[in-house]
Q: What sequence folds into this?
């Protein structure tokens, strides 16, 4: 059946029905160059206007440029009733095919997950890992979905001022990867290289917007953090798991600076992130008070990965081999479903799809 309008498989020809069947309408090039002009089929096809057709619609280069622009700006929407995905790495008698990273990216509703503050850091970290090493494994549809969700992440930070440092690191890693894959080397990404260069320009624009982000001072008449007793402020600092957050908070007031430099605070932070390291366990046994735990933290950070902590993560059911958000659930057939659940870190998510 003929189609009307643009389509990614062709320039988008226009057709009209006649007594002899469907005929393609070929108009003057300057008529179609106006993107805002609508074609009135009845007006053009009244009478004996068949002699009006004079040639091709437009030149190949113009058509290709419009097609690339259209494909790059089309928002691909993925709407799935089930918010879970079956992880399959090989074909069996019951199931054929396997699950890819791009398919999981489309199925697990990350677009809605970033609106939940418990999941925002998890999704941002996962996208950072994909930007570092997995861009070449994404299909064209998954790439569109990736950048659509990434745009929503940036917009949320600009609107809510939530964790801009993490998103800046994500964009920096993505920019470095695209530079190495498109500008400094042979493009091995799915799609036209011009589309990726356009996306690279968009990333630079997002970086500029985040660098120019100004968080307004909140005017509140109630109790502020500085009004709390010192022991309560100290307890809140002990809940932090990110050293940069502790340092930034210490720059707010002289009192917070003194609390943030507490050696016991940095000792607790070292134990939280590196307690499974033999070197740190040996230091914990010793009663030497001359250890600079802040310096020790940043030294260990250079050699060992830090422990990741998220408000909510994806879960994997070992009985059903299904990946899902815990709030959404999944059709489990186990007698005790909770005993089969395993939280999935961002790196573990990437490893699930390495074949």
A:
């Amino acid at each position: 059946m003929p189609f009307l309008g643009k389509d990614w498989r062709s320039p988008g020809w226009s057709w009209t029905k006649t007594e002899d069947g469907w005929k393609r309408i070929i108009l003057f090039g300057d008529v179609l160059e106006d993107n805002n002009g609508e074609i009135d089929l009845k007006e053009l096809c009244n009478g004996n206007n068949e002699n009006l057709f004079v040639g091709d619609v437009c030149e190949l280069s113009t058509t290709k440029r419009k097609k690339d622009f259209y494909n790059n700006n089309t928002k691909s929407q993925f709407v799935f009733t089930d918010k879970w995905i079956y992880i399959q790495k090989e074909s069996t008698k019951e199931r054929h095919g396997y699950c890819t990273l791009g398919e999981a990216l489309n199925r697990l509703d990350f677009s809605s997950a970033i609106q939940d503050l418990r999941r925002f850091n998890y999704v941002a970290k996962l996208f950072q890992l994909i930007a570092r090493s997995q861009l070449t494994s994404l299909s064209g549809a998954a790439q569109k979905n990736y950048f659509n969700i990434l745009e929503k992440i940036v917009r949320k930070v600009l609107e809510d001022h939530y964790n801009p440092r993490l998103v800046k690191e994500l964009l920096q890693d993505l920019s470095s990867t695209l530079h190495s894959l498109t500008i400094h080397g042979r493009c091995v990404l799915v799609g036209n290289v011009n589309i990726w260069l356009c996306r690279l320009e968009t990333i630079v624009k997002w970086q500029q917007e985040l660098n120019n982000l100004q968080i307004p001072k909140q005017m509140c008449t109630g109790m502020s953090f500085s009004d709390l007793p010192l022991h309560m402020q100290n307890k809140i600092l002990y809940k932090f798991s990110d050293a940069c957050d502790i340092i930034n908070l210490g720059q707010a007031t002289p009192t917070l600076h003194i609390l943030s430099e507490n050696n016991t605070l940095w000792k607790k932070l070292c134990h939280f992130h590196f307690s499974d390291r033999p070197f740190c366990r040996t230091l914990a046994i010793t009663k030497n008070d001359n250890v600079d735990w802040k310096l020790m933290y940043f030294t260990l950070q250079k050699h060992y990965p830090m422990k990741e902590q998220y408000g909510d993560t994806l879960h994997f059911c070992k009985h059903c081999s299904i990946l899902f958000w815990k709030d959404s659930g999944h059709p489990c057939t186990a007698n005790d479903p909770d005993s089969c659940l395993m939280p999935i870190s961002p790196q573990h998510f990437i490893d699930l799809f390495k074949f």
